[in-house]
Design brief:
The strands form five sheets. The protein has a seven-stranded antiparallel sheet. It has a five-stranded parallel sheet with strand order 2-1-3-4-5, with helices on both faces. A five-stranded antiparallel sheet has the order 9-8-7-6-10. The protein has five domains: about 120 residues, Response regulator (Rossmann fold, 3-Layer(aba) Sandwich); about 80 residues, no CATH class; about 120 residues, Rossmann fold (3-Layer(aba) Sandwich), CATH 3.40.50.2300; about 110 residues, no CATH class; about 60 residues, no CATH class. The protein starts with a strand and ends in a 9-residue tail after the last strand. It has 20 helices and 24 strands. By secondary structure, the protein is α/β, with parallel strands linked by helices.
């Protein structure tokens, strides 16, 4: 049971806060004297301090002075009417772990209190305390849709992040800019300090600081779609540098292949190579790289075909993919039609630009390995870190807890015990899956958000090897996709639709033209739908595959030979 020390200069407010937290099952003590808040909390063995303070009054100033003199080893949750932008950085620098602006609901108060109650930032070295405080402040700024300039003093020099109305506007960290700079700053394991200041809407970024060495920091998710990590079991946060990223370079020009590989190797990356698309696919399945860089123009299987093969294979489809071409028109057309690569670069690009693009593309995937650990709560967008990559990172760290991932259709749950898979389930409004079917549903999620909760320990069970389970689930997913593809190619009939699921599918699925859904619902074949709507075969194929995968539709039986 968490112990909470509650402070409020108002005795009635103090009693109300204590009642809410006590009814939530927490052991609560409190007081009305600001001078003794931290000492009283330590003496009571509290896991968190809830301080109800109007910022600017004498009680607030006294508590802030106490925190500044000696930051609290106990997380402080501040309850205020309103925090001016100018005061945000000061409060987080002083040791405040989070700020809730009133009015707020009892449920929000209890949830934040429990989360912070398991966080012991005082156990971290000072440099890591600063990192945790910076992440908390950035989370608060984004959540409350504020704007301003965040200045960060790192061991490599000064860096800046500018946000406006809770969105990233610009960032600069050495030679890194925008998302790449923000990711790297959020993944630092040590910094000297930071501050936050409001700036006018037309303010510009300060001049660029000196370059940052290539190995400074690990990339993390940018504030535009943050991947957040919160220490919920004391002592869990530890610095960890993942092994070097593995890059597979594919090019039939062996001289250019050699140049690219040598440059990437000098940048500290592990590099594999292949001289055509088919060899590249085989090498990717053997070595499981973190990213593929491929020329477009190659004999037999070209770069575009390799990209499609990778995106159609659940074992590889989450890998970042960079296409290179010396033909501007070909490269630009692929980018225009959304071929599925992460970047489209000119083949004569400078080596440092190629390195920067590679590091930026793998940043979010690598972040999962930097932040995952037993006792660390992670949350973010599953597409950013990759469903397979995330589970592998958690397994590698020996994590215990429950991973939730949910898109608009399916909620998948994986239970981990000491890095082994001990359970899996997946549900939608009308479908319930367990075991390997649920793992398959997880690896096929798209556009999902995830939360890994180490406090939600799964029921004990016989642990399965994560890598073997993922391979089996991917094989099943590939098999079902191939069956759908074959039916599309060989069967002239339409689909049998589940009406109640079709209505739900139309509401929650984005990017599908209504005329396509209307004609499929009438039982038209994919070919007829393409002919009537003029939509591309790739789009119609994707919609049909997606509907079959989600149980919205099944194919009609193929007509018997000679049948009319």
């Amino acid at each position: 049971m968490f112990r909470v020390f509650v402070f409020s200069p108002d005795a009635q407010r103090l009693a109300a806060l204590q009642r809410v937290l006590s009814e939530a099952g927490l052991a609560v003590q409190g007081g009305t004297q600001a001078q003794g808040v931290l000492a009283g909390a330590v003496q009571a063995g509290a896991s968190v301090v809830v301080a109800d303070i109007p910022v600017g009054d004498t009680a607030g100033a006294a508590l802030q002075a106490a925190l500044t003199a000696q930051p609290s080893p106990i997380p402080v949750l501040l309850l205020v009417q309103r925090v001016d932008d100018a005061g945000v950085g000061v409060l987080f620098q002083a040791g405040v772990a989070d700020i809730l602006e009133q009015p707020l609901t009892p449920a929000v108060l209890v949830e934040r209190t429990k989360t912070l109650g398991a966080t012991a930032s005082g156990l971290l070295p000072p440099g890591q305390q600063q990192v945790l405080a910076l992440r908390r402040m950035v989370e608060f700024v984004l959540r409350t849709r504020r704007g301003g300039l965040i200045t960060v003093d790192t061991p490599q020099g000064r860096a800046h992040i500018m946000v406006r109305q809770g969105a990233l506007v610009s960032a600069q960290y050495g030679s890194l800019t925008h998302d790449a700079a923000a990711r790297a700053l959020m993944a630092l394991t040590e910094l000297h300090g930071f501050f936050f200041q409001p700036v006018p809407d037309d303010a510009r970024m300060p001049s660029a600081p000196p370059p940052v060495p290539q190995d400074a920091g690990q990339p993390a998710a940018g504030p535009s779609e943050p991947i957040t990590a919160t220490e919920v079991i004391p002592g869990s946060a530890q610095a960890f540098t993942p092994p070097p990223a593995r890059v597979l370079v594919v090019d039939d020009d062996e001289a250019l292949l050699e140049i690219a590989c040598r440059f990437l190797q000098r940048g500290g990356l592990e590099v594999g190579r292949a001289t055509n698309g088919q060899a590249g696919l085989e090498r990717a399945l053997q070595t499981r790289p973190h990213i593929i860089v491929s020329d477009i123009m190659m004999p037999e299987v070209d770069g575009w075909a390799l990209l499609r093969l990778v995106r159609d294979d659940h074992r590889l489809r989450e890998l970042p993919f960079i296409l290179l071409s010396c033909h501007d028109e070909y490269r630009d057309k692929l980018k225009q039609v959304g071929a599925g690569a992460n970047a489209y670069l000119a083949k004569g690009i400078k080596g440092d630009q190629l390195m920067g693009t590679v590091l930026d593309a793998v940043a979010a995937h690598r972040l999962a390995w930097s932040l995952a650990a037993p006792g660390i709560r992670l949350e973010g967008r599953l597409d950013e870190v990759g469903p397979l990559n995330l589970v592998r990172a958690l397994a590698f760290k020996g994590a215990t807890g429950t991973l939730h991932a949910q898109d608009q259709w399916v909620h998948a749950v994986l239970g981990l015990q000491d890095g082994a898979l001990v359970g899996a389930g997946a549900t939608s409004d009308l479908i319930t899956l367990t075991g390997m079917d649920a793992v398959k549903a997880y690896v096929k999620l798209r556009g999902a958000r995830f939360v890994f909760d180490p406090l939600q320990v799964p029921p004990p069970g016989e642990g399965a090897d994560v890598e073997a389970s993922l391979d089996e689930a991917c094989a099943l997913a590939n098999q079902s996709d191939e069956e759908v593809r074959e039916r599309l190619m060989t069967q002239g009939g339409g689909l049998i639709i589940q009406p109640e699921l079709m209505a739900l599918y139309g509401r929650v699925t984005e990017g599908v033209p209504p005329p396509v859904l209307e004609r499929l619902a009438k039982g038209m074949s994919p070919g007829e739908v393409m002919a009537e709507t003029g939509e591309s075969p790739l789009l119609v194929e994707w919609v049909v595959k997606d509907m079959v995968r989600k149980g919205v539709a099944v194919f009609r039986d193929a007509p018997a030979p000679g049948a009319v």
